[in-house]
Amino acid sequence: MSARDLDWKPLALVPLLALATLPLVGSPSTWLTLTVAGLAMGMIIFIIASGLTLVFGLMDVLNFGHGVFIALGAFVATSVLGSMGDWTGSSELWRNLVAVLPAMLVAMLVAGAVGLAFERFIVRPVYGQHLKQILITMGGMIIGEELIKVIWGPQQIPLPLPEGMKGAWLLGDAAVEKYRVVAVLVGLAVFALLAWTLARTKVGLLIRAGVQDREMVESLGYRIRRLFIGVFVAGSALAGLGGVMWGLYQQSVVPQMGAQVNILIFIVIIIGGLGSTGGALIGALLVGLMANYTGFLVPKAALFSNIALMVAVLLWRPQGVYPVANR
Amino acid sequence: MMNRILSGDRPGSRVLAVLLLAIFFGLALAPFLFPGIKALNVAAKVLVFVVLVASFDLLLGYTGIVSFAHTMFFGIGAYGIAIATTRLGPTWGALAVGTLGALLLSLLLSLAVGLFSLRVRAIFFAMITLAVAAAFQTLASQLSDFTGGEDGLTFRMPALLSPSFEPFEDDFLGVTVDGRLISYYLLFAAATLLVLALLRIVNSPFGRVLQAIRENEFRAEAIGYRVVVYRTLSSVISALFATLAGCMLAVWLRYNGPDTSLSFEIMMDVLLIVVIGGMGTIYGAAIGAVLFLVAQSYLQDLLRIGSEATSGLPWLAALLSPDRWLLWLGLLFVLSVYYFPTGVVGRLRAARARPPA
Amino acid sequence: MLETRDLSVRFGGHVAVDGVSCAFAPGTLTAIVGPNGAGKTTYFNLISGQLKASSGQVLLGGRDLSGLPASTRTRAGLGRAFQLTNLFPGLSVLENVRLAVQATHDGRHRRGLNLWSVWSDHRQLTERAAAIVDSVALAARRDAPVSSLPHGDQRKLEVALLMALEPQVYMFDEPTAGMSHDEAPVILELIRKLKADRAKTILLVEHKMDVVRELADRIIVLTNGQLVADGAPAEVIASPVVQQAYLGVRESAAGEPA
Amino acid sequence: MSAADLLLELRGVHTHIGAYHILHGVDLAVPRGQVTLLLGRNGAGKTTLLRTIMGLWRASQGSVQWQGRDIARLATPQIAQLGIAYVPENMGVFADLTVQENLLLAARGARNAQQIDGARLAWIFQLFPAVEKFWHHPAGKLSGGQKQMVAVARAIVEPRDLLIVDEPSKGLAPSIINNMIDAFAQLKAGGVTILLVEQNLNFAQRLGDGVAVMDNGRTVHTGSMAELAGDAALQRSLLGLTL
Amino acid sequence: QSEIRIAHVYSKTGPLEAYGKQTQTGLMMGLNYATGGTMMVNGKKLVVLEKDDQGKPDLGKSLLAAAYSDDKADLAVGPTSSGVALAMLPVAEEYKKILLVEPAVADSITGDKWNKYIFRTGRNSSQDAISNAVAIDKPGVTIATLAQDYAFGRDGVKAFKDALKNAKLVHEEYLPTNTTDFTAGAQRLVDKLKDQPGRKIIWIVWAGAGNPFKIADMDLKRYGIEIATGGNILPAMASYKNFPGMEGATYYYFGIPKNPVNEAMVAAHYREFKSPPDFFTAGGFSAAMAVVTALKKTGGDTKANTLIKAMEGMSFETPKGTMTFRKEDHQAMQSMYHFKIKVDPAFAWGVPELVREIKPEEMQIPIRNQR
Ligand SMILES: Nc1ncnc2c1ncn2[C@@H]1O[C@H](COP(=O)(O)OP(=O)(O)OP(=O)(O)O)[C@@H](O)[C@H]1O
Ligand SMILES: Nc1ncnc2c1ncn2[C@@H]1O[C@H](COP(=O)(O)OP(=O)(O)OP(=O)(O)O)[C@@H](O)[C@H]1O
Ligand SMILES: [Mg+2]
Ligand SMILES: [Mg+2]
């Protein structure tokens, strides 16, 4: 998709949804709080789903074990941040960032490294076979979760937010949590990086081609296997980053946290259309907003808001909003 | 004669035939061969899962539809019995009402799901059913007035099937004849009939069309088969059988709750059993269910022995700890994909079919 | 009698088949020729229902088939083979053909909607299928899974499926493409036999002009989705449209790259 | 012919697919700068042979020599990087990708469409007008013949030493076949070696220098095209027809 | 028979693994303590059989049956989750053996699903809710509740509401159990509370995934809204550090009860694990104390009817002081603790400081079973 024929309709969906709910919510400050919180939540969801746009969207690997990298990232963060109490305890934001950035980096490194092994032993034998992917990655997920329990124990571990990121800024009557602003910035950075890489290099193209006909890509002289490994590792590392963000948001981590977000992130990718970073972003924002609006207007329905959203989008565009890969 | 009962679908391998016979007689004589409540519970669970998995095989192995909503129908069956007996008391009438009501609901739901499956592509459909199943589970725990919520429902069976029913003074071959034993044989009879019926269905002209659709839906339509009709029928039939499996479960457990019959975990178990056993074979369901459930039920006991034996090596002992049994289950998932890509049945049949080198 | 009236389909701005009206009488073999991308396969897709027409009608024996799904049209008597091989790869050759045979016969198995009888009991289906497999010279490969067949054999099976359907209208889309020179005659012989049965309508898309010349009773020419010529073979082949646009009787060859 | 003139040479190649033994010791010599034709009936093993050269099937025995170096154990990408372009029997067109993207992938040096060699592209457009016409369309939507054109275009979008093509003429209109013959002739003139499987003997006859005929997984005849073309008895015995 | 076999059915694995393990630790420590380290009562050895219900009701049910029947267990303790407990109740009745429920909390265990073989040392939801009500129920206080939208949450709120005498309850907010973003719910709570006079409290009862305390990040202070909640396990109380001064009532915190049993348990736990005992450790310990006290009373007789007679109305010492099995529904009556959170850098969690012990007599815990 080039700028030439940019498809603006899905882009309009987000503001449209927001505006449509304004009269329903009534109070503008409440609406603002909900909207900002929803958008920021969407960004967090986007970060945890971004790895899956690569792994599921582009590489066509139905990785049910993706969540385990999210959990792994979060647990690594507890260890890293736990050892930097001075920095997280300070209420100066820059000191907090000095603590959080290495935590993110280490989490990404560890998740990426484990991703490498995961690709080799779990995913490689089953490229192109969805059913087996489901089973074997579920197995990988279970193993990963259990290993996390062996290393960190089965109990919940607190992951307190650094002091400087606690609390909220006030916009008139509306409160905007500081952490959500941080999340928005991180999310935008991830988005920019992903979108740039996929648009500016042949990587995306090669992966899509490789999914359709691996032999042909190899016959053209590309080492598709290495590329697949690289992309899988990148996806896992992003999941690790997502885990840090999610863990900090929840302020505690449990080994099951990966499994808990699995369905959510699959929904985001499907709404977005396979392989599309922009679509995933829109999907995530819609999910985040929708959860808040329905949560405020009809809390009972909030449970099903994601599914309703997904079904509605699929009825409109059966392939998701911006399908890149045509599967 | 045998051929007719099996609908002409012979095991196709001597080892497989022996295995199947062993399973059949093992289950038929389980109360006598394997004394104890635990063993009987495992045997009963095998019976329920054979039906459940075989019904899923119809959908997955024969029609090629990946659906995660299969446990939904299983749950409907179990809840049908649970709710009916809770409301109407432990009577045969309640069992009938529960079963029929559940079948009806499954019919309607599977019709809807089946029709929807044609609108979206396969992976999307799989993911949608995943979400739908999750939503259904939440719904079941939300409607707590009806379903008992998270806590589920505990209920009683008609006198003949309740454990306190003991018609004879004396034991029979060392086994007390009680309602539990009668329930077991009711399950056994039901499982046998249902599996044979499924075998018949997959070996009918209809079953062959399903396979054709799995192989190439587009071409099946082009040679004159209305794919919508066949797919929907297949979804409905498999849902109905799953519902009956759910009823069997409820009769045996006299309890039902969202985790018991609706959880994603059960769905994964079912998937794994299909794959271990061999997709698109029906027989695989029996083999897989026995292998998996026995492994699952006794894994912790096995690990306990293992971890005690290795207590000198703390790391190994930690991994072999019975608390980490899921780790080994996960490994089973992985290894079964590695070593049984076509399942036990596929393996055995291939061994037979391979020309001498 | 098969007839299309003003049949058109557009993909976005591109009109792939553009108002084609044509009738095909039983007992004749009509060859459809035209450059690559002229719309021949698309025309077939519109007739057999793989594609929905943007406008126009398809009639068979006076019955309007427009809007009906492909399976219904097949049951109504339209049969086709595909240009790009399109089979049931995991099933054996015999089973492939049997499925097609089953799709046509009413008998006891009710076209596959019979859930309760045992498949292997329908012996006459198997016999019929085996005969068809023989007729396309695949008998030796009868139990091989289709995915292991060489390309040429898959093309033969493609034809076998069409034969098994026993339709009123046969549509062949380049049946011999990729078939070797001692195999192609088998298929051409089958088509010739069909022609002898005066009740059948046969449509043939073919790029090999010697085949067309030999088999066709009539040729129609499509270019850019439009019917541009229709008539007896010799006459059409000699026409300038065909000579230039299709056969490529050219003035100059393309230049070499720098 | 001296060994130095051989670009590719196969000796006693055996190939198994799963449990099946398909190639039973094939010998084949592909001289540099010539068009070598591979003929044979359906199921003779032609496609299997080409796939073995590309490393898509593994030779279980025998050697595949590229300019005297054994490449039988190399991975497919490495083999391709030696300077080989391959057009498979099923065309291998990426249906999801546009025609442009299909060609871009074959242009290993180019990072985007602008960097593809313009002159060469113009030449391709002239040979296969459909490639230009459907430049921005998903390749999967093209007609059978158009896909075949894309597949061949992809193989020649950058210069290669050896072009391996499996039945390029099937499904093509006569005028396009003429273009393709021209294209191959021009490539050959530019020093490119071509290994071609072809059923269309008219096509074969107009291009071929050397010929190898396969049957039942073996080469049963090798010689020059001219010799085969002039000997009707040989044709009948090998191919079951006369030219 | 020289052994007394006690089956402990609990979540050795599964989502409640961490809780279940605490119970097991407590149970073993308690048995040890109660028997003076001999593990013998009246010359009979106490044998504990561990059974892992994995948090699955159906599994718990069949394990209990197998324990009573195959393993000849004399009585059983457990399980961790209420759902499992409810499925297990009829099994005790069927086998006519005691099931001592610990720590499953659902009211209906000693309510309408109860049978005479069921005892419970753990607190029930009503005790939790009512003690919390007692702790924050003052005139002039306005309260809104935030709970999970399912039976557990709704029952808790109902019991809480019924126990309020002075405060005004203006809103009940129920959110789906899997809620992760609490903004919408918080916004509704704020809208309801912000214009109320006096002290304003959001009382939270929440168990499981999600962190409802995040609502504090929306700067509730500017409206003068406070948060209150019950106790929890130590890792979960880490987030209490954000709420110095928060009040509520808890079942147990190791620093609160002052009695020899608690001191012994804390000491033993530090000795063995270098850490204080937690919420559920105390429960397991209490269950052990109840079992041994009862067995001593019957002289080691494990017949169910004898035991029932001995246990009805029986008082026994626990880390929480004296508990008494109420005759009517076999629920152990026990103290709860009104606390106030203090932040102490020495601890990784917010430390609950005792405001006042709420004695069993102060709480009217309704009797809900039909005897
Ligand atoms: N689904 C589609 N979407 C868009 N364009 C299509 C689609 N199907 C076909 N076309 C276009 O319609 C034109 C006609 O294609 P068709 O396959 O009918 O050609 P054909 O005459 O059979 O050619 P060939 O001889 O190469 O098989 C082509 O240009 C093709 O690109
Ligand atoms: N995947 C496979 N599994 C088993 N056998 C195969 C497989 N692929 C090819 N074969 C067998 O190998 C033999 C040679 O096939 P190949 O495709 O090489 O023939 P070909 O000469 O290219 O024929 P055609 O002209 O029809 O393309 C055939 O007998 C075929 O059945
Ligand atoms: Mg065509
Ligand atoms: Mg070939």
From TrEMBL, chain A:
Q: What is the superkingdom listed in this entry's lineage?
A: Bacteria
A GO term from the CC aspect:
plasma membrane
User: For this UniProt entry, which residues form the secretion signal?
Assistant: none
Membrane association type: Multi-pass membrane protein
GO process terms (BP): amino acid transport
Spans traversing the lipid bilayer: 36-57, 64-85, 97-122, 179-199, 227-249, 261-289, 301-318
Entries under InterPro entries matching the protein? ABC_transp_permease, BCAA_transport_permease
What keywords are annotated for this sequence in UniProt?
Answer: Amino-acid transport, Cell membrane, Membrane, Transmembrane, Transmembrane helix, Transport
Subcellular location per UniProt equals: Cell membrane
Q: Name one GO molecular function term.
A: transmembrane transporter activity
Family per UniProt?
Belongs to the binding-protein-dependent transport system permease family. LivHM subfamily.
* Protein name, as recorded: Branched-chain amino acid ABC transporter permease
Give the originating organism. Answer: Melaminivora suipulveris
UniProtKB/TrEMBL annotation, chain B:
Q: Name one Pfam family in it.
A: BPD_transp_2
Q: How does it sit in the membrane?
A: Multi-pass membrane protein
Q: Which GO terms describe its cellular component?
A: plasma membrane
Question: Which spans are transmembrane here?
Answer: 12-34, 40-60, 92-115, 122-140, 182-202, 223-251, 271-295, 326-345
What start-end ranges are recorded for coiled-coil regions in this protein? none
Cross-referenced CDD domains: TM_PBP1_LivM_like
The subcellular location is: Cell membrane
Q: Which UniProt keywords apply?
A: Cell membrane, Membrane, Transmembrane, Transmembrane helix
Entry GO MF terms: branched-chain amino acid transmembrane transporter activity
Q: What is this protein called?
A: Branched-chain amino acid ABC transporter permease
| Native species | Melaminivora suipulveris
UniProtKB/TrEMBL annotation, chain C:
Q: Name one GO cellular component term.
A: plasma membrane
Which CDD domains does this one have? ABC_Mj1267_LivG_branched
Cite the ABC transporter domain residue spans from the record.
2-249
A Pfam match: BCA_ABC_TP_C
SMART domains documented for this protein: AAA
The organism's superkingdom is given as Bacteria
Kindly give the InterPro entries that the UniProt entry links to this protein: AAA+_ATPase, ABC_AA/LPS_Transport, ABC_transporter-like_ATP-bd, BCA_ABC_TP_C, P-loop_NTPase
Keywords from UniProt, A to Z, are:
ATP-binding, Cell membrane, Membrane, Nucleotide-binding, Transport
Cross-referenced PROSITE patterns:
ABC_TRANSPORTER_2
Which GO terms of the molecular function aspect are on file? ATP binding; ATP hydrolysis activity
Residues crossing the lipid bilayer are none
Q: Tell me the PANTHER family matching this sequence.
A: ABC TRANSPORTER ATP-BINDING PROTEIN, CONSERVED COMPONENT OF ABC TRANSPORTER FOR NATURAL AMINO ACIDS-RELATED
This protein's name: ABC transporter ATP-binding protein
The record lists the organism as Melaminivora suipulveris
From TrEMBL, chain D:
**Which InterPro entries is this protein grouped with?**
AAA+_ATPase, ABC_transporter-like_ATP-bd, ABC_transporter-like_CS, BCAA_Transport_ATP-bd_LivF, P-loop_NTPase
User: What Pfam families does the record tag this protein with?
Assistant: ABC_tran
Q: Which terms does the UniProt entry file under GO BP?
A: L-amino acid transport
Ranges for domain ABC transporter come to: 8-241
Q: Does the keyword Transcription apply?
A: no
**Which PROSITE patterns does its entry note?**
ABC_TRANSPORTER_1, ABC_TRANSPORTER_2
Going by the UniProt record, its keywords in alphabetical order are: Amino-acid transport, ATP-binding, Cell membrane, Membrane, Nucleotide-binding, Transport
Q: What molecular function terms (GO) are annotated for this protein? A: ATP binding; ATP hydrolysis activity; branched-chain amino acid transmembrane transporter activity
Against SMART domains, the record matches this protein to: AAA
Return the similarity comment: Belongs to the ABC transporter superfamily.
What name goes with this protein?
Answer: ABC transporter ATP-binding protein
| Source organism (scientific name) | Melaminivora suipulveris
